[in-house]
C-alpha cells in the first residue's frame, strides 16, 4: 500500500514537472514605439522557441530594428540594425511550420529564405490572417508560428502604419528606424 502511494506521488510530481516544462514563456520586446509582449508556445514549437529564447537571453535583439514593415501583412525584425547591416547569427534551425499553429493576426513566426530550413534570428508578427504562410505540404512548407502577442497589439498596429521607403535593394524600410531597445524574458 505504501509503495503504491509513493509511486502515485512520484507520478504526480513528474506530471507537474513535465507540464511546467511546456509552460508558456513570455518575452517583452521594448521598442521605440512601445512594448510588445509575446507568449511563446514551446509545446508546439520547441525548437523555434528555444532558438528565439537563446537570442533573447544573450541580448542579440537589443538595438536591432523592425527593418521590414508591410501594411495588411506583417512587421519583421531581429536581423538588421538601422543601417540595414545584417548581423551574424547562429546556424539555421529546422522549420516547425507543420506544428498546427497558424499565421493569424497577432502571431509571431520565423522569417526565412526560400530554403525551408533557413530560419535563424529574424521573426515577424502577422498583422492580418496570412493563410498562405501556413504549412500546406512538403512542397509548400510555410512559416513556423511559435507564439502570439498578448499585450501591445496596438503597438504592432502603430508600427505597421509608419511611412516606409526603399533603401538600396530593400523595400518597405521604415523612414524612421523602429528599434528593439530590449528583448527580455518576463515570465517562465
UniProtKB/TrEMBL annotation:
Q: What class of enzyme is it?
A: isomerase
Quote any Pfam family the record assigns: Pro_isomerase
- What UniProt keywords are attached to this protein's entry? Isomerase, Rotamase, Signal
A biological process (GO) of this protein is: protein folding
Q: EC number(s) for this protein?
A: 5.2.1.8
**Start and end residues of each PPIase cyclophilin-type domain:** 30-185
Presence of the UniProt keyword Signal in the record: yes
Kindly list the GO molecular function terms attached to this UniProt entry. peptidyl-prolyl cis-trans isomerase activity
UniProt entry tagged with the keyword Coiled coil:
no
- Catalytic activity entry: [protein]-peptidylproline (omega=180) = [protein]-peptidylproline (omega=0)
Q: Which residues form the signal peptide?
A: 1-23
Q: Which PROSITE patterns match?
A: CSA_PPIASE_1, CSA_PPIASE_2
What InterPro entries does this protein map onto? Cyclophilin-like_dom_sf, Cyclophilin-type_PPIase_CS, Cyclophilin-type_PPIase_dom, E_coli_cyclophilin_A-like
What does the UniProt record say this protein does? PPIases accelerate the folding of proteins. It catalyzes the cis-trans isomerization of proline imidic peptide bonds in oligopeptides.
Q: Which family does it belong to?
A: Belongs to the cyclophilin-type PPIase family.
Protein name, per record:
Peptidyl-prolyl cis-trans isomerase
Amino acid at each position: 500500500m505504501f509503495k503504491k502511494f509513493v509511486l502515485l506521488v512520484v507520478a504526480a510530481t513528474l506530471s507537474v514537472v513535465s507540464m511546467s516544462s511546456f509552460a508558456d514563456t513570455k518575452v517583452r520586446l521594448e521598442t521605440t514605439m512601445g512594448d510588445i509582449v509575446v507568449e511563446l508556445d514551446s509545446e508546439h514549437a520547441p525548437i523555434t522557441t528555444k532558438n528565439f529564447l537563446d537570442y533573447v537571453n544573450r541580448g542579440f535583439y537589443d538595438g536591432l530594428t523592425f527593418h521590414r514593415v508591410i501594411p495588411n501583412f506583417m512587421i519583421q525584425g531581429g536581423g538588421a540594425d538601422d543601417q540595414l547591416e545584417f548581423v551574424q547569427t547562429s546556424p539555421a534551425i529546422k522549420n516547425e511550420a507543420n506544428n498546427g499553429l497558424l499565421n493569424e493576426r497577432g502571431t509571431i513566426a520565423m522569417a526565412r529564405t526560400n530554403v525551408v530550413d533557413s530560419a535563424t534570428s529574424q521573426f515577424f508578427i502577422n498583422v492580418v490572417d496570412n493563410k498562405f504562410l501556413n504549412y500546406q505540404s512538403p512542397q509548400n512548407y510555410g512559416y513556423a508560428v511559435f507564439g502570439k502577442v498578448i499585450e501591445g497589439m496596438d503597438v504592432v498596429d502603430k508600427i505597421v502604419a509608419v511611412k516606409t521607403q526603399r533603401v538600396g535593394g530593400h523595400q518597405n524600410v521604415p523612414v524612421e528606424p523602429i528599434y528593439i531597445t530590449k528583448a527580455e524574458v518576463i515570465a517562465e
